[in-house]
Amino acid sequence: MELRHFLYFIAVAEELHFGRAAARLQMTQPPLSKQIQQFEEEIGVPLFKRNKRHVELTTAGQLFLPEAREIIAQVNQAVDTAQRADRGEFGRLVIGFVGSATYDILPQIIREYRRKFPHVSIRLHELSTPDQVSALIGERIDVGLLHPPVSSSFIETIPIKRGFAALSLPKNHPLAKKEHIYIEDLQDIPFILVSRDIWPGLYDEFLSLFQSVGFTPSIVQEATEYQMVVGLVSAGIGIGVVPASAEKLFNLEVVYRQIDNYPLTAVLSLAYLKKNTNPALKQFVSLTKRIRIDE
């Protein structure tokens, strides 16, 4: 018993004429009649009453017809599901992200992805950049939003947001009252940074900036995420270096300033394992490339 036998039966049952059914199926009548006969023999009951001028369904045939239609519909649905899954329209996607992405481009990406692919199940995990790299290599997440650079040759990275970093200062700090902050103003100032393990790009750029003008910044505290930096700044521990999007935290005890003539960059990248064949990942990467924006 093959799927085509159900299609042959449905055609004859709907046409009640072997000639018209054969034409509909784009075949000749004798092979169709033979296939229907073999189908009835395999089922073990007659599905049609037929003579030279008339064809009608038996009681068994009448009851079998809606079941046969349901089988074909289920097969078509299964094929459609498989094809849509292959296109990334169904399935599961596990996403890692650094905390700063929450106040930046991540909501926009997730909102647009869910709108376009509502049948893909999304799991979100907040992870530091090193933890995301480990999770990508271990295939525990499909894609990450992290701070570059990433040294692993197994991972592809794509910059998706190039913004600026800012100084975060207690609102009552003397520098907070200045209209312009120059790099010379920052000598002997205690700084709080996200640790190099977590955000190597910003950490190295910050040190390089001060080395270029002949002094080394005083880093008194390192943190695992920039939300912690902002909290320590509000406690008066020092001045922080955070992405400009940190202003969205709405901490009333902290203000944000740029260093005049010395902009610091804050880059967010998309990362995924090169060998990952998840179709949903392919769609996510494609969508993210389309909506990425530069400040």
List the main descriptive attributes of the protein structure presented here.
D-Maltodextrin-Binding Protein, domain 2; two-stranded antiparallel sheet; alpha/beta; Arc Repressor Mutant, subunit A; 41% helix; 295 residues
Would you summarize the structure shown here?
The protein is 41% helix and 24% strand. It is of the alpha/beta class.
The counted number of beta strands is 12
Tell me the series of helices and strands, N- to C-terminal. Answer: HHHEEHEHHEHEEEHEHEEEHE
The span between the termini is 63 Å
Number of domains: 3
Structural class: alpha/beta
Mean pLDDT score: 90
Summed up, the helix count is 10
Given the C-alpha coordinates, what overall shape results? rod-shaped
- For this structure, what is the CATH class of the largest domain? Alpha Beta
Characterize the biggest β-sheet: 10 strands, mixed
CATH architecture annotation name of the largest domain: 3-Layer(aba) Sandwich
What is the CATH fold-level name of the largest domain? D-Maltodextrin-Binding Protein, domain 2
Which percent range describes the beta-strand content? Answer: 15-25%
Name of the CATH superfamily of the largest domain: Periplasmic binding protein-like II
> Can you give the helix content as a percent range?
40-55%
The poorly predicted ranges are none
Radius of gyration: 33 Å
